């Protein structure tokens, strides 16, 4: 697998091309799911901070940036920031509020990303909210096989789930790390699969110049774009994390600068775990996170004013008994909401996550995930990472959890629909109320008949039957139902259309770069 | 069991009295839980309706009340409403907006209820939010015994859980219906247990004059109050449901009027299932629910101006494929939020619920319950019925679910604490950030040491260990962990203190009323 795309892969690629005229293949039967859409969040965000609180967090972040400083472990970045007038002391950079705010004024508050299938274009910003698959767990877990190290076959399974579900908008990082592929060529194999198994927006890990350049080139080739077409608008993105507290490392900065220069979006997401890499107080952890995020964004806006960026939050807390990270906690929810307020203050799109500490897809997993997903809604998050499939604080990707999470994501999409709270005369339905009268029922009336097929959210993994009907049908608990759906999705999966010339170009580039040895692995 | 309290019960009552001086018994060891408190919700509610939408729902409800009318299947209520100037046509009553709004102007926007232990006094209204145990399922389910019909022993188990958890503020209806006790005396046995196994606010079912009067008398006796002391302030409450659409039945109205006359609170909760007993459109179902609720509240305010009342929402939707009721859906959430806006418009306290359609305490149960509990938070709900223990659309009470739900309730209580979003200089912690610097860690710094014990929510059923530690300890899923906690709580349960004279009075009254045959069962 590490040498070049396998015969099966090549074969599938050709089959895809051969079916290029077949437009009916979108019909999936495993479940009856919602159509693709970019959800728009109509709710006023939940705002725990008053105006004074917003100012206090802003002043805190600015104090960190101007007085304490952030380390940039990248000589190029240091040189640029020095030229920009920042105070550079070794690797420590201090930047004043005026500079930071001027740089932020260049950043767009909203941008699009257009993948090889333009119908899958997404919007990051405003009231839009898009969902990203689980990214980066080293392990997988499912009901049949238990926990095991990530591999390429499992990676591909998750890519198929990512493509299948219309409520997943972005094929983010690797859903599991395929450790059976050598790190030097892993990005080549993974991106080839990602770009052919899905037609959604893809992501590049900022793990060295070669990887970043390869992924940009592969994204360009898969879409059949010229270099200038590629750079004319966002086509893919990267997400970088700071090394909290107060550090940005070499490869993350390098990748971010490479993308920014070519007009590709960068999401900057500090990972500030209160009590470990950040203050034990939530506002302190948020202030630290903001300072780290804004520092990198200021650098990128200086390099390429107006380049698309988003600020991420990954502020949670540890379990003070064990030091273990906790997710979906009350503190996590408030940190996400506070960061949302600050993102709007800085006019930046916001990324947060769908996360939990649970090890298996049980009740705990779902209350923690519900907490984090509703915090995403309440915070006005624009991009929800790990929205489906995450377990064990990000150490496990689970297909059952993926399927279960997609039920929640669909419910959020339905929750956003105006039909759930519209108050037109037809909605208030006085004529139907008069017609049915006291003690009657609404099943048969025309008002119901006209609407019953689309009136309510229709679930695909939830079982709404009564206990006896459920028990007579085997008494299957949710994870097992999700397991069956996941298997069925894989069994019937057909890859999306791809232009055969583009696929050939992509294949040749992948093979060539693998032959060359891929990327150095001494990072 | 149906003849009189059993020897074991009498014995326990005496033991309780004998320990009256023991103040240390509050220390429970099964779990480390939060102390008793009345949570205060600091969030601005989520408001899907704009001002026009609020007016549209108000006009809709008023039109239903004045033009379509509501049936009151109670001659006394009909006579009173006729006297009040309403248009009464047979059992159909039409009331004008002026009358309704004048009656609503008498209703308090907030009130207290004081049970026999005054430390357990609760507030219903304002930003306060209290949690009620699961009420009224006919069946119980647990991991060991599966689904079975409710009985008195199981009723007592749930009463112990209700008392044990500090996050449960009210011992509401029967957590399971004890069908092994004859309906004529069931309320006597149940209330004796409720009033001795708990010291929290209790509820009376409005199921006939005798039951209501018995429960008021038992509540009075258990607290050692004179009749005038009992009536001087709310001591217990009832919850009535309309028979949607557009009907209030005899016993519910009778009980409500009896309580109102004695200054005891009445919660009016229509059960409007969109597509079945209510329009298929959510705003229509909410308008119908509001009209039914306001009709009963207007009656009570005419009878006793200023009597404490609350409006409830139980608006959800059916599964249009099967007709089965669904709970915790996106539509349920919006209906709850809309009713919250209208409750504030009418200046009435709001009741909603913690509900799900799931049959067992799995992932589906928890995402549906999370949806309904967060909708309660977002709607500004003051009283959350069924907040712990509900399954199968209310047909099952489960102790595992009870324990799991209490984890969410505690997280909501923590989420409300200002510490999670405070922005004082100590919270923003610039000194700690400077001290730790880039690449350091916060575990050891003084700022953390001063706060780590109370910095974060501490769970009791969630397992935050990593997969390997969790697996090495048996790999126990959440329902099984909850089952063990429930068993441990029962094993170590000690009833709350009760004044022995009051308990004797209560016991004698209960025995006498049972000897008299209790209440008629021809309702």
TrEMBL record, chains A, B:
Keyword Chloroplast set for record: no
Biased composition (Basic and acidic residues): 1-10
Coiled-coil region: none
Pfam families found in the cross-reference section: MTTB
Protein family: Belongs to the trimethylamine methyltransferase family.
A single MF term (Gene Ontology): methyltransferase activity
Keywords per UniProt: Methyltransferase, Transferase
UniProt keyword annotation of Methyltransferase present: yes
Region span, Disordered: 1-37
UniProt EC number: 2.1.1.-
Any one GO BP annotation for this protein: methanogenesis
Protein name (record): Methyltransferase
């Amino acid at each position: 697998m590490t040498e070049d795309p396998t015969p099966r892969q090549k074969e599938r690629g050709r089959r895809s091309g051969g079916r290029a005229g077949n437009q009916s293949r979108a019909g999936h039967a495993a479940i009856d799911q919602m159509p693709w859409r970019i959800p728009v969040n109509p709710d006023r965000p939940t705002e725990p901070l008053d105006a004074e609180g917003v100012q206090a967090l802003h002043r805190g972040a600015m104090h960190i940036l101007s007085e304490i400083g952030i380390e940039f472990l990248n000589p190029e970045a240091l040189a640029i920031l020095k030229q920009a007038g920042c105070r550079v002391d070794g690797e420590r950079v201090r930047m004043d509020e005026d500079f930071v705010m001027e740089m932020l004024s260049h950043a767009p508050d909203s941008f699009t990303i257009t993948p090889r299938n333009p119908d899958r274009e997404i919007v990051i910003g405003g009231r839009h909210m898009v969902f990203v698959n689980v990214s980066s767990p080293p392990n997988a877990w499912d009901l049949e096989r238990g926990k095991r190290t990530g591999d390429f076959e499992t990676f591909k399974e998750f890519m198929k789930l990512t493509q299948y579900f219309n409520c997943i908008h972005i094929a983010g990082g690797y859903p599991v790390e395929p450790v059976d592929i050598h790190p030097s060529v892993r990005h080549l194999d993974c991106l080839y699969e990602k770009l052919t198994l899905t037609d959604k927006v893809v992501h590049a890990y900022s793990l060295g110049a070669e990887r970043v350049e390869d992924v940009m080139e592969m994204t360009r080739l898969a879409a059949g774009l010229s270099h200038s077409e590629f750079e004319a608008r966002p086509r893919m993105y990267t997400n970088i994390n700071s090394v909290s507290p107060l550090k940005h490392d070499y490869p993350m900065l390098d990748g971010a600068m490479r993308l920014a220069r070519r007009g590709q979006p960068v999401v900057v997401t500090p990972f500030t775990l209160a009590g470990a890499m950040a203050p034990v107080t939530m506002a302190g952890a948020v202030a630290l996170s903001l300072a780290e995020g804004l520092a990198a964004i200021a650098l990128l806006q200086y390099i390429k004013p107006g380049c698309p960026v988003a600020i991420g939050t990954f502020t949670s807390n540890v379990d003070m008994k064990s030091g273990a990270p906790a997710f979906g906690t009350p503190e996590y929810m408030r940190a996400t909401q506070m960061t949302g307020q600050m993102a709007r203050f800085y006019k930046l799109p916001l990324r947060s996550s769908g996360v939990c500490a649970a090890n298996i897809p049980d009740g705990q997993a779902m209350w923690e995930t519900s907490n984090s997903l509703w915090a995403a809604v309440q915070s006005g998050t624009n991009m929800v990472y790990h929205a489906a499939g995450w377990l064990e604080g990000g150490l496990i990707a689970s297909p059952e959890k993926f399927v279960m999470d997609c039920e929640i994501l669909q419910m959020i999409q339905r929750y956003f629909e105006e039909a759930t709270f519209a108050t037109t005369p037809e909605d208030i339905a006085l004529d139907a109320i008069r017609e049915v009268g006291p003690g009657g029922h609404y099943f048969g009336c025309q008002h119901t008949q006209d609407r019953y097929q689309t009136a309510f959210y229709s679930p695909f993994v939830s079982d709404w039957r009564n206990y006896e009907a459920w028990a007579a049908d085997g008494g299957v608990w949710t994870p097992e139902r999700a397991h069956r759906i996941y298997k069925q999705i894989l069994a019937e999966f057909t890859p999306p259309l791809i232009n055969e010339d583009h696929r050939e170009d992509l294949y040749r580039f992948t093979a060539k770069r693998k032959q060359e040895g891929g990327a150095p692995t001494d990072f």
